[in-house]
Amino acid sequence: MSTSLAVEIRKARHDNESEWRRTRREIYAEYLTALTQARWELSGVAANSRLSDADRRAKANEIFARCYQIRHQLELYAPSAVVAPAVTYFRTLRDFRNAIREGLRDGAPNPDPQSEYSRHVSDVKTKFERCRDAMRADINPRGSPPDPSPAPE
Question: Where are the chain's structural domains?
Answer without folding.
Answer: 26-139
